[in-house]
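Hey everyone, long-time lurker, first post.

I ran two proteins through the pipeline my lab uses and got sequence/structure pairs for each. Pasting them in order. The first:
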Amino acid sequence: MSKKILLKTSALAFALQGAMALSTSFSAIAQDQDDTADEARTLNTITVTSRKQEESILDIPVAVTAFDAAKIEDLGLTDLVDLQDFTPGFTYESFGTTTGRLDNVPRFRGVTTNTANPTRQTASVFIDGVFVANGVQGINFNDIERIEAIKGPQSAFFGRSTFGGAINFITRTPGDELRADISASATSRSLYEISGGIEGPLIGDWLKGRLSANFRDKEGHYDSTADGGSTGDEETWSIAGTLFITPSNNFDAKLRVNYFENDDGSPAVGIVGQDLLNCGPTAFETEPNFPSVVPGQRGPLGGEEAFFCGELPSPDPNIPTIASDGLLTALGNLETPVNGSNARRADKGFGLDRKSLRLSGQFTYEIPNTGLTISSITGLNEEEVNQLRVGEGNNLGPPAFISFNSREFKDFSQEVRLAGTALGDRLDWSIGANYFDQEFNSSGGFGTLGGFLFGNGSNLTENQIETIGIFGSLDYQLTDKLGIAVEGRFQEDDITEGADSATFDSFLPRVILNYQPDNQTLIYVSYSEGNLPGGFNTDLIELSDADQALVRAIQPFSSETFDEEVLKNTEIGVKRDFADGSGFVAAAAYYMDRTEQTYRDTTQVTLTDGTDDFITQFLNIGRSEIYGLEIEGVWSPIENLTLDASLSYTDATFTDFESANALRVFGRADISGNEAERAPQLTGSFSWLYEDQLENGWTWYIRNDNSYQDHRYASEVNLARTDVAMIHNLRVGVRNDRYRVEAFGLNLSDSDSPIAAVRSTDLGSVVTRTNGARPFDFLIGLRDRSEYGVRISANF
C-alpha cells in the first residue's frame, strides 16, 4: 500500500473515531444511562426502505440521508437543487451539458460525468422504486411522503445507473379518513405556487384514493441584455391520482398515475466567451467582432487555445428571449424525426416544453401460514420534450447560433421479489428478478439567428436498453450483536444504438458486516461494486475510413466502442442514537476505485467533402481514486431548541487521465492528479430551530438554515472554477395541527455564486472564424437572488 493511501486511510479512520467520540460525548450529556429510555425517543425516527424492507434509518447499515414529509415542509424543499444543500455527498446542478431544464444529472461522492445523456448517468432517481430517466423537474414535493438519498453503489438492489448512488421518492399513501390539504406561497420576485390534495375511503375500508395537483409559476430573476426579456422563467403543473387497495389483511396494492408539463422560457445563463478568457496563448488575430487564437501560437500554458483561470464571473445573460419572425418562419415546417413535433415550440419561441406520463403499481402479498412475502413493482414512463435555445456565444454581442433538441423516452420495468425468514428468524432472505426496457430517441440541429439552418433535425439518435437482472440477499444474525449481509445481482444489459448492438454481463455484489455494541450504536463495514455499461460511438462509426482518420488526427483516443466502467467501494460507518431521544449522529468514511472511466468528447472536424461536423464520442481515458467522509446529526440540547448539521469531504482525484482538452490548453494530455470536475470537495449545512407553545394549541417557531458549498471546477483541466457558495434562509411562523402561516427569506446574503459552470465551445466565434479553431467558453448557471415570501397551508 502506498504512503498516500495509508495516510488518507488513517486520516479517515481517525475522523471516524472522532465522530464516534463526539457522539458518545453528546450522548453522555443528553442521555439517562437507563437502557429502557430507548422507548422514550422524542425525535422522530424515520423508517426507510433502501434495502427493499422497512428499517429504521438508525439501524440500516448503509449511508442514507432521509427526509420525511414534516422535514420536507420545514425546510421548504421544492426540487433536487434544494435537496443537495442538506444531503452530504450529493450534488445536483441546474443543468448538465445543455442549458435549461432539459437534463437530469444527479451525482454522489465525486462520481461525476461530463454528459447529460440519460443512458450514461452515474446516479439515478426513482419514484416508489420505479426508475425515472428524465424529467425530475416535475416532481411535486408536496405529494411526497419520504425522500431517501442512498450513497455508494446501489446496483445490488436498484440495478443499472445506480453506479454512485440513488434517490428514491416515496409518494403519499391514501389514509383511512377523509382529509384534504392545501398549500400556497408567493414571493417578492413573482414566484407563485399552489398545491392541494384530497384523500380518503372510496369503497368500504378496502379501497382508498388520493387526488393531488400542483402549479408553480416562477418569473426569472435576470433580464437579458440582448432584448430586455426575462430569463429563467419556469412553469410546471402536475396532477396525480393514487388508489390503495387492501381487500384482505395479507394483500395490498398501490396504483398511481402522474401527468405533468414543463413550459419554460430562455434559461438564466451567463456566457464567459472567448473575449473573457484570461490565460493561455497571448497572441490573437482579430476577425470581425471576435478575437481568435492564432493556430500554432503557444502561450504561457503551453497549448494552442486560450482558457479561463480562476473564479468564473457571473455575467448577465445576453441571450435573446424572443425568437425573430424569420427564425420562426424557418422553423415553421421543420418536424423532428423523433415525435413529429414542431421544433419552433408552436409560437412560443425560445424555451422548453415537456410532457410526461408516469404509471406505477406496487403489490405486496403475504402468503398465509408461511412467513413468505411476494412483492412486485411495475412502472411505465413516457415523455416528450422539445427545446429551442440560443447556442453558446461570447460577450461581444448576442450569440450567432440557435439549436433545437427533441427527445422521446419510453420505458417499462417490472420487478418481482420473494422474501422470508429462516433459522428461528435469525436469517432474512430474498430473491428476485427484474426486467427493464427503455427506448430513448433524440434529434437536433443548429442554425443562425437569421433563420439559416443546418442539420435539418435529421441527426436522429436511437438508443434501446434491455436489462434483465436476478438478485438476492442473505442477512444473518451471527450473534445478538454481530450480523452479516450478503447481496448480489447478476445483470445482463443489451444495448442497441442505431444499427449496432452489444451485450454486457456483470455480477454486482455487496457485503456488509454490522456490529451493535449496545442499543444505541451501530458500526458497519461494507464492500460493494457498481457498473456503468459500455456502448458505441455512432458518430464515428458512420464516417468513412478517410474521415475517421481525420478525426483520429485531432482526437487520438477515438474509438468505435467504449467499455463498461467499474466502481469498487469500501466503506466504514457508525450511527449512534442518544438514548433519551434527544438526537443522533451518523458518520461514514469510504474509499472508491473507479476504472475504465469514460468521458464525453466532441471533436470539430472538416470532413473530406469540405463540410464541418461535430463528432461526439465516449472514451475510456480515465481512472479515479475517491476518498471521503460524511457526518450528519440532529441534537436537541435543551427544550424547544433543535440543531441539525451535516458535513461532507470528498477527494476525487484522477490517477490516470488523457484529456484532449488539456492537450489543447497545456500541450500535454496527461492530467493525472487533477480533481474531478463539477464536484465540490467540502460541503456542509447547519440549521437551528426554536419553537415554543402559544395558547389554544398553537406553536410559534423561527428556523435558520445555512449551507456551504466549496468551489467546483468547470472541467477536468482544473483552471476555471466557481466561487464558494454560502446560502442563508430564514423562516418565521405559527402552526397547529391544521394550519401553518409562515414568512420566509431565501438567499438572504444575495449570493451570486453560480449554481452551475460548464466548459463548452464558443459557437458564436466558430461561425465567424476562418482559422478552423474552436475556442472554449463557459456556461454559467445564475443563482436566484434574495427573495422574501409567505406560505400558508392547511389540513382538513
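...and the second, right after it:
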Amino acid sequence: MCHARRVTSESALPSESNADCDVAALATVVATQRAELDRLRNAAATAAVLERAKGATMALTGCSADAAHEELVRRAEDSGRTLVEQCWITLGGLALPDPLTTERDEPTEPGSTPAVPTPRGEGPSDRHDARVLARIAQALVHVRDPRELARCLREHLAGRVRADAILIFTSGPAGGLELIGHAGVTETLATQWRHVPPLSGVAALDTIRTRQPCWLTDFERDSERYVLIGTPPDRWLTRAWLPVVTGDAVAALGILRTTGDPFPSATRELLMEVARLCAGRLRSLLPSPVQVADRTAEVVQSVFEALPGSAILLTPLRSDTGRIEDYRIDAAAPYAVDVAGRRGRALVGLRILECYPTVVGESLWEGYRHTLTTGEPYEGEPFEYQDVVAGVPETTTYSVRAAKLGDALVVTWVRHDRADRQEQRTADVQRLGNLGWADWNLVTGKANWSPQAFAVLARDARHGPLSLGELPARVVPEDRPVLSRAIEGLLDGGPPVDTPFRLGTPAGTRHLRLVAEAVNDADGRPLEVHGFLQDLTAQRSAELALVESERAVVTQHGALLAERTLADRLQHALLPLPRRAQQLAGLRVDVAYLPAQAGIHVGGDWFSAIELPDGSALFVVGDVAGHGIDAVATMAQLRFTAKGMVITGSSLTGALTRLNALLLHTHDTNATATMVLARYEPERRRLVWAQAGHPPPLLLRDGGARYLQRPKGMLLGAKAAPSYDEAEFHLEPGDRLLFYTDGLFERPSEGFDKGLDRLAEAALGLGTEDPGALSPLLHAMLEGERRDDVCVVAVHLPPEPA
C-alpha cells in the first residue's frame, strides 16, 4: 500500500539545536487550537440550528423563546430523538418556499404546513439543505442497523451532493478500522475493506484520529498521499471523510463520488450537519460496553450449562475511588449453589456477599483482586468455609480457582467433603472405565445396581436389575453355557470369577465382562454376590482390528516376498552372471551386477558380452526405466533382441532403430530405455559403438581417465523416428574401458556432471595388479543407501609382452 509522503528540505531546517523541539511544540499548539476551533464551530452550528427552530416555533405558536425551547425538548424526548434531530425535523416541515417571494418554482402544496418568513441571511439553498436534513432526520428514526444507515444516507444525498457510495468505519482492534455499514459498493469490495490494520495513509483512519474532516478533491495528488478505496481506485474521483462523534468514540463517514468536481462550501456545511445528525442514531446502533459484557455473559452461561462442576462469572463492583466493594454474578453453572440453596441461573444478578457473606477478609478475596490486577490465575489452598444450613452452622472444605476473562473473573471450586469426594470418585471410575457395580442379595432375592451397570447391559433402569439366574438368558447363545457355569460356581461358594461374554443389542453386539465374588456365612453358604460389569466393546473392537491388520500385513508381506523371489529368479535366469573373468577377442571382460537394496526393486539393468561368429566381440549395457516384473520383462525383450539383430548382421545403429520401434509398438506401458552397443575387432583393435541416451564409456589410459565423446542418439521409446550415429575408437595395450549404468554414479543430492566426475576420480584409484577387480570401485561409489540397480562391464586389453 502507499503511505503518505513527507519531503523536508535540509536548507529549511533551523540551525539551532532545539529547533525540532520548537517545531514539535508549535505543532502541538496548532493541533490543539484546531480541535478547539472545530469544537466551537460544531457548538455554534448546533446553536444556530436550535435558534432557527425556536424562531420558527415562536412564529407559528406565538409563544416565548423559553416556551419554544421547552416545546422542542419535549418533542425530542417524546419521539426518542436528539434535540438537533428534532430541530431539523421542525425546520424541514416549515421551511417551504415563501409564496410572497419572487421564486415560484416550488408552489405550496394544498394541505402543507403554512409558510413562515425566511430568517435573515437564509437563501434558497439554505432552505433546500434544511429540507434535506429534515428528511434525513425523519428517515434515521426508522434505521435499525449501520447498513441501513448507509443506504438511507445514499438515498437522500445522491441527488443533492451526487453521493455514489457511502462507507461507515469505526475503530477496530489494535487501532485499526472496522467497516460496519456500506451502500453503493459491491460485497466483494466491502469484504476486502471490512478489516483495515492501523496503517498510515488511510484517510478514514486519519479522520477518526484527528476528529477532522478530510476532503479529497485531487485524485492524482490524493492517490500519492492515501490508500484509496476502489477497484480501480479512480472509480471515485472525489471523496469526503467526516468524523461522527458518538460520545467517547468516533466513526468515519465516507462520501464517495464519481464526479471530479470539488465540494462547494455549502455542500461541505451540509455534509458536516449530516455527520452531526448521524451521531445520535449511530450511538444507539453501536453496542455499548454494557451490551458487550451482556453478550459475553450469555456465551459464558452457555458454556457453564455443560459443566459438571461449580463455576460462576463475577464482575467487580467498584466504589468511586476504584476499590472493589463487591462482585456481581453474571453467569452460573447448574451445580453452583450458595448458602441459601439457590442454584445455577437463580444466582445470576446477585452480589457475591449476598450468596457467600463470610468470604470478605479471606485469602481468596485478596486472590480475586490480585488476579484482576495482574491477570495471573489464582489457585488457593483448601480452606474451611462456614455455611449456615437451616440455621445450623456447618463447616465445609473448598478449593477455589479464579482466572481473568476480560474485566471479569471465572471462578470454579471443588468441595472436599469425604462422602462427596468418595461418591464423585466412584462415579468417575465407573464412567471412565465404562463399568458399573452390582450386588445380589441371595437371602432377600433383591438386587442393587449402579446407574452405569444399567448402561453397560443396555437395560432400562425402570425395569429394575436382573437376578443372577436371569442374566445368562440375555447373552448370545454361544456364551450362555460359560456364563451359567461361572454363576453356578459362585452360588456353590466357589472362588471369584472373571468371565467375558457377549450381549446382543439393537446397536450391535457388545463384549462384556463379569467380575464377581460371593460373601459366605460361617458355614460356607453364599449370602451375597457383589462385583462389577464392564463394557469392553471398544477394547475388543480395537483388538480385532489389530488382528485383522496384522493378518493383512502378513499377507501383503508374503505377496511382496513372492514377487521379489519371482523377479529375482526371473532375472537370474535371463541375466546369468559369470563366476570369473571372460576372455573375448583377446580382451579380459569382468562384470558386476548389484540389485537395489530397499524393497522389491529388481530392475531393468542388463549387459551382454559375447563373441560373434566373425571373431569380433559384442558388448551391450542397457537400463530400462522402473523396477519389478514389467521392467524385467522389457529388459529380457531388449537384451535378446539386440544380440539377435547384431549376430544376424544388423549394424549397431540399425539395431537401435529397430529396438526403438519395438518399444513403441509392442509395449503397453510406454516404457523407455537407454543402451550402449559396442563391437570390437581384434585385428585392428578397433571399437565401433553407438548409444541411445546412455552415459558414455570411461577410458583409463596411462594413469588418466576420460569419457569417450558420445555419438548422436536418443533414448529408446521416446520418439517415433530417432536418428543414431556410430563412433570409432582404437584401443591400445593396457587400456581399460568401463561400460556402466547410471545407478553407479547418480545421487539425489548432486548433479549428473558431478557424479561422473566422482566416478572418474574413483576409477583412477584402481590398482593395476588385478585390472579386472571391480570391488574397490563399487565400494567407493556405493557408500550408503543404494536406490537403483548397478551394472558394470570392464574391458581390459592386456599390455604387450616385453
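Reply from user beta_strand_b:
Welcome! Quick read of the second one: The longest helix spans residues 19-61. Residues 609 and 619 are 5 Å apart (CA to CA).
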